[in-house]
Specification:
The complex is a heterodimer of chains A (468) and B (245). Chain A is an all-alpha fold and 468 residues long. Chain A is built from 19 helices and three strands. Chain A has one domain. Helices cover 72% and strands 2% of the residues of chain A. The chains are: A mainly alpha (468), B alpha/beta (245).
Chain lengths: 468, 245
C-alpha cells in the first residue's frame, strides 16, 4: 500500500510539473543557502583563528608596561561557535563575535554582522534554517493540500472506499509519501552534518541529533497538519486556503506578535541608556566613600597613618577594590537586564504552544549554540576571565609597585607577568546541561505532534464515515 | 443450474432510510440472484442512490437490512466491499494517470494482486483501445472511463456489481458496448444491480426491473414480462400515480 501510494503520488506529482518545479526551486535555494552560509562560516573561522593567534602574541609581546596600563591595553577574546551555526545562524549577526576585556569596563560584544549588512540584506537572511522552518512547510502545504480533499471532491475517495480501501493505511501511506518527499530536503543537511562530524571537531553528535530530530518532528507536524485539514475540507481549494492561513499565522504573524508582546511586557533599556546607566551607577559619591573607608580600614589594619607607609603599593589595592566595587554594579545591572531578557525569552517561547515554528526556533538555535543563553554563557565566561586578569595585574602592582627600577623609574610588568594571564579558552557545555532553555519548547513540539496524531485518528474516522 | 437454484447475492429486506424529515427509502425489499441483472428505475430523488449507498455501507439503514453474499455491511463493511464492485455515473479516476495505472492502483488498493500483463489483458477484455491504455485518463471519453471502471470491477472478481446510472451520457455505440460487457459479467455469475434512467437499456439487458418513486418500490416485474411490457408507459403510470397521490 505504501509503495503503491508513493508510486502513484510520485507519478501524479511528476506529471503535474508544478510540484516538481517548486521542489527544485526550494532545493536549489536550500543548496545556495547552505553553500553561502558555509562559505561565510569558513571565512569567519579563518579570521577568528588569526585574531586568536595574533591577540595572544600582541598581549605577550606588549613589552614593559605598568600593569594597570596593560589592564587598559586589554585583550580581545573570540566567541566560539559550532558547525551547526552554518545551518542556523540564529542571533549571531545581532550578538557580535568579539569581546574586549579591559580594566573597569564590562563591554558588549563587537563585530555584529547586522552592522556590516547592506540595506537590502536587512530584509531577511536566506539561511538553511529559514528555508526549513518557513519555506518547507509551505512546500508541504502545496504538495499535500489536495491529498484527501481532492480525492473527496473528484469521487476517487468514495470509489477507493467502495473498493475496500483501509482508511487507516490510506492515511498512513499519504503521510509517509509526503513525509518522504519532505525528507528529501534533509539530504543536504545530513550530508553536511556527517561531513562536519567526520572531518571537523566543532560539532557534537548530541547537538546534531537534537537538531535533526527536532526538524524531523517539525516536518512531521506540518505533514500531519496538512493531511488533517485536507481530510476535513470539502474541497481542495478550501483546504489550501485554511492551510495558508495556518502557515501565515504560525510562521509569520504569531512570532512577530509574540516578540512585540514580550518586549512590551518585559521592557529592556536600549544599549545606549544601559551603558550610560552603568557609568553613572559606578562613579558615584558612594563609591568615593567606600574607597575612603577601605583606605582607612587598611591604614588601621596596618597601624599606619599614610598609604606611603604601607608595606605594599596602595595603588594596586585601590584599583582592585575599585574593580570589585564595579563588579558588584555590573552583576546587579547586567543581572537585572538578564532577568528581563530571560522573561522575554520565556514569554516568547510560551507562544510555542500556539506555533510549532516558535518551538522549533528555540530548539534549533540552542542546538546550533546561536541563541541568547549560549551568548550569555560566553559573555559570562569572558567577564570571569576579565576579573581574573584584573586580579592578577592589580595583585602584581600591589605586590611589586613599590620597587623601583635601577634608573629610578616606577615598576613595570614584563613578559613573565603577561604570561601569568591564561589564554582565554571557552567551549560551550554539553547540550543536555542546557535543557532548561529549550526543554519547554521541546515539550511544546511533542504536544503538537501528539495533538496532530489524535486529530489524524479523527481524520481517519472521518474518511471511514465518508458518504454517511 | 436453473434460475431457482441460484443464490441471492444482493438482498434488501424492508429497508428504510430517513434524512431528517425526508423519507429517502421507505420499506423496500428486493433480491438479485447470482448472474441476474436487476434494473432499478425511478426519477431523480426516488431513493435509488440511497439504496446503493446502504449496500456499499456508506449509509446505515434506519430499519430493515441489506446483505451482500450474506454479509451485512453494518456488521462488516470491509468484508462486504471485498465482495462488491461499484461503478458510479462518473467513474472517478486519477486524470494524470493512464488507464492501466488507474486500474493497477485501484485494484491493488483493494488487495488484488495481478501481473502487469494480466491487468493489461483486463483492459483488452473491456475493449479499451490499445492506444488509450497508456494515455492519461484525463483525455478519455466517458465511455472509455466506464470501461476502466468495469476493468476495476473485473479485477476484483466481485460477486456483486452495483452500477449507478452507468449509461448516462454515453453515445448509443458506447452504451451498447457497455451493455455487452455487463451481460458477459452476468453470464459469469455476477449479480448486477443497475440504477438507471435508461428504459431502453433496462428492457434490453435486465432480467428483472424494479420501479421506485418517493422512496417506495412501486412496481416490479421479471422474466419475459419485461420484454412484453410497454416499459415506458408502465414507468410513467407508476411514477405519475404516486406523484398525484
Amino acid at each position: 500500500m505504501l509503495t503503491l501510494t508513493l508510486k502513484k503520488e510520485w507519478l501524479e506529482g511528476r506529471r503535474e510539473g508544478r510540484t516538481l518545479w517548486l521542489s527544485c526551486i526550494v532545493l536549489v535555494l536550500l543548496a545556495c543557502a547552505l553553500l553561502s552560509s558555509w562559505h561565510s562560516y569558513q571565512q569567519v573561522q579563518v579570521q577568528k583563528q588569526q585574531v586568536e593567534k595574533s591577540e595572544r602574541e600582541r598581549w605577550l609581546e606588549q613589552g614593559g608596561k605598568d600593569p594597570h596600563s596593560a589592564a587598559h591595553y586589554g585583550v580581545y577574546v573570540v566567541k566560539p561557535d559550532t558547525g551547526l551555526s552554518v545551518l542556523d545562524p540564529g542571533l549571531t549577526d545581532y550578538q557580535g563575535v568579539v569581546l574586549r576585556l579591559e580594566a573597569h569596563k564590562r563591554n558588549e560584544t563587537l563585530f555584529r554582522g547586522i552592522q556590516d549588512a547592506i540595506q537590502m540584506q536587512r530584509f531577511g537572511n536566506l539561511s538553511p534554517a529559514f528555508i526549513l522552518q518557513t519555506l518547507l512547510p509551505l512546500l508541504i502545504i502545496l504538495f499535500g493540500f489536495h491529498s484527501v480533499a481532492a480525492e473527496r471532491e473528484s469521487g476517487t475517495l468514495k470509489q477507493l472506499l467502495a473498493n475496500g480501501l483501509c482508511p487507516k493505511r490510506f492515511f498512513i501511506a499519504k503521510t509517509l509519501s509526503i513525509y518522504g518527499f519532505a525528507l528529501l530536503f534533509f539530504v543536504p543537511l545530513v550530508l553536511y552534518i556527517l561531513f562536519t562530524l567526520v572531518f571537523g571537531s566543532s560539532i557534537t553528535a548530541y547537538r546534531s541529533a537534537l537538531f535533526l530530530i527536532s526538524y524531523g518532528v517539525y516536518i512531521l507536524i506540518w505533514v500531519l497538519l496538512t493531511l488533517v485539514i485536507s481530510s476535513y475540507s470539502r474541497t481542495a481549494r478550501s483546504a489550501l486556503i485554511s492551510l495558508l492561513v495556518v502557515w501565515a499565522s504560525t510562521c509569520l504573524f504569531l512570532p512577530k506578535l509574540a516578540i512585540a508582546n514580550a518586549e512590551s511586557k518585559f521592557p529592556t533599556p536600549s544599549s545606549q541608556i544601559f551603558l550610560s546607566k552603568l557609568e553613572s551607577e559606578i562613579y558615584t559619591p558612594e563609591r568615593q566613600q567606600a574607597i575612603t573607608k577601605f583606605k582607612q580600614d587598611t591604614l588601621d589594619e596596618f597601624g599606619v597613618k599614610s598609604v606611603d607607609e604601607l608595606p605594599f603599593a596602595w595603588s594596586g589595592a585601590q584599583l582592585q577594590f575599585g574593580e570589585q566595587y564595579a563588579d558588584k554594579v555590573f552583576d546587579r545591572l547586567f543581572g537585572q537586564r538578564q532577568i528581563q531578557l530571560d522573561a522575554q525569552g520565556f514569554h516568547y517561547q510560551s507562544a510555542g504552544i500556539l506555533s510549532p515554528f516558535i518551538a522549533l526556533q528555540a530548539i534549533s538555535m540552542s542546538a546550533a549554540a546561536t541563541d541568547l543563553p549560549h551568548h550569555v554563557l560566553f559573555s559570562n565566561a569572558g567577564e570571569k576571565h576579565r576579573r581574573l586578569m584584573q586580579e592578577i595585574l592589580n595583585g602584581d602592582l600591589k605586590e611589586n609597585g613599590l620597587t623601583k627600577k635601577s634608573d629610578g623609574e616606577s615598576y613595570q610588568g614584563d613578559h613573565q607577568l603577561w604570561e601569568r594571564i591564561p589564554e582565554f579558552s571557552y567551549q560551550y557545555p554539553p547540550i543536555d546541561t542546557l535543557a532548561k532553555h529549550y526543554g519547554r519548547a521541546a515539550i511544546y513540539l511533542v504536544c503538537w505532534l501528539v495533538l496532530l496524531m489524535f486529530l489524524a485518528c479523527l481524520a481517519v474516522q472521518r474518511i471511514k464515515n465518508e458518504g454517511k | 443450474m436453473s434460475n431457482d437454484d441460484r443464490v441471492n447475492v444482493i438482498s434488501v429486506n424492508h429497508l428504510s432510510k430517513r434524512f431528517a424529515e425526508y423519507q429517502a427509502v421507505d420499506n423496500i425489499s428486493f433480491t438479485v440472484k447470482q448472474g441476474e441483472i436487476l434494473a432499478l428505475l425511478g426519477p431523480n430523488g426516488a431513493g435509488k442512490t440511497t439504496t446503493i449507498n446502504c449496500l456499499l455501507g456508506f449509509l446505515k439503514p434506519e430499519s430493515g437490512r441489506v446483505t451482500i453474499a450474506g454479509i451485512d455491511p453494518v456488521v462488516d463493511v470491509v468484508a462486504v466491499r471485498k465482495q462488491l464492485a461499484y461503478i458510479p455515473e462518473q467513474v472517478a479516476l486519477y486524470p494524470k494517470l493512464s488507464g492501466q495505472e488507474n486500474l493497477v492502483y485501484m485494484s491493488e488498493v483493494a488487495g488484488v494482486e495481478k501481473s502487469t500483463a494480466q491487468f493489461r489483458l483486463l483492459l483488452n477484455e473491456v475493449n479499451l483501445p490499445d492506444y488509450a491504455i497508456d494515455k492519461p485518463v484525463g483525455s478519455y471519453s466517458k465511455g472509455m472511463r466506464q470501461k476502466v471502471g468495469i476493468a476495476i470491477a473485473l479485477a476484483k472478481n466481485a460477486k456483486a456489481l452495483v452500477l449507478d446510472e452507468p449509461t448516462s451520457g454515453l453515445d448509443p455505440s458506447a452504451s451498447h458496448e457497455f451493455s455487452e460487457l455487463i451481460q458477459t459479467l452476468a453470464k459469469e455469475g455476477v449479480a448486477i444491480l443497475m440504477a438507471t434512467h435508461d428504459l431502453y437499456r433496462a428492457q434490453e439487458d435486465a432480467h428483472s426491473v424494479a420501479i421506485m418513486n418517493k422512496g417506495q418500490l412501486v412496481h416490479s416485474l421479471g422474466g419475459d414480462a419485461i420484454k412484453d411490457a410497454e416499459l415506458e408507459s408502465l414507468y410513467l403510470q407508476h411514477v405519475r400515480a404516486v406523484s398525484t397521490c
